[in-house]
Specification:
Strand content: 5-15%
Shape: flat
Helix content: 40-55%
Number of helices: 3
Number of strands: 2
Strand order of the largest sheet: 1-2
Length: 94
């Protein structure tokens, strides 16, 4: 579903999702904080990006080491690979 409004104020999200209750996957847009009755869930690609940002920020001394950031990226890559290999399967088969 999609709704176009003249701005990005959270009131538009609250208006659009007024009847919705449940989990809503979002991109961390703060406007969704104004929507009652939802549980915000994040996107794994955005979560992975936090680890890649950390890799960019770590010092030169740590770049060759197995840091938490390295491990985070590795685990997300493994998960994405698994998902890709099973993309042809239907819901419960995955």
């Amino acid at each position: 579903m999609y709704m176009c409004r003249p701005g990005c104020h959270g009131k538009y999200a609250a208006e659009f999702l007024a009847e919705f209750k449940g989990s809503l996957q979002t991109d961390e847009y703060a406007g969704y904080n104004l929507v009652p009755g939802i549980t915000k869930v994040g996107c794994l690609a955005h979560a992975r990006r936090k680890f890649t940002d950390a890799l960019t920020a770590i010092s030169e001394n740590a770049k060759g080491r197995n840091t938490v950031a390295h491990e985070g990226v590795r685990r997300f890559d493994e998960l994405f690979s698994l998902e890709k290999r099973r993309a042809h399967l239907r819901g419960n088969e995955r």
